[in-house]
Amino acid sequence: MNDLSFSKGHGLGNDYLVVDAADLEFDVTPSFVRAICDRHRGAGSDGLLVGRSDHAPFELHIYNPDGTEAEKSGNGLRIFGAYLHGRGVVQNEWFDVKLIKDTVSMRVEQQLEGGALMIRAAMGRADFSEAAVAFNGRSHEELELPEGGTAVINTVSLSNPHCVVFVDQLERTDFLRRAPQLCNHAAFRFGTNVQFARVLDRTHVQAWIWERGVGETLASGSSSCAVAAAATERGLVDPGIITVEMLGGDAEVEVRSGFEVLLRAPAQNILHGHIPADVLANWD
Description:
By secondary structure, the chain is α+β, with helices and mostly antiparallel strands. The chain is about 20% helix and about 40% strand. It is globular. The N and C termini lie close together (about 10 Å).
């Protein structure tokens, strides 16, 4: 077994490791994902991206740090786009990335100060039905939580499940108490990503993120899209361009007719490295 090359990037502080599938000499297992994402004994990240860049459309598998595979990640997609751009595989043209459920079109729009890239991704059509997120309940209604209390939820799917909770104020104690309960609630068959959101005005929303398989993250691309789409569907913001303010920074989400959603935000490669073969053998 040879050493494994990898890159690391982040989108608004949400960091992923990137590995080219052509460099892997073994199958990706949950134990390998957990090991490489470990922040103390591994390379450390909010997830792992395994991409194939030798033909179009490009292919991408997204793994949470607990070893589970995610259907979609707006930050992960943009980090992979920055990885492709850094290798000279793409320039400023639109390109497609095939995921396990759908295909996303992306384009690198500009280079920012410090080497970050502004990348736009067409994230698809938001689906607000309960069935789309495998939720056994009713959206827009109160859901009882297992440890007490309730939450009025808004279900959104962008090929991955989201649960948006609108609040008058974002409070840490409340978020840390209710968000994990919603993420793993039995009513969501496969779990869900959770966003607590506060509408600031007709074009700005503030959001905190609790991701399925990860926990709290500084930002999430698909979560920002879910928040903007849900706020538009509820009439809380105007259709068009909505700025979603997260702990890691701001994302621009465009909600078009039919709830087609586009995401525009920066991503950046920050380092390249390799995992020694003897370490890999111990991980798998």
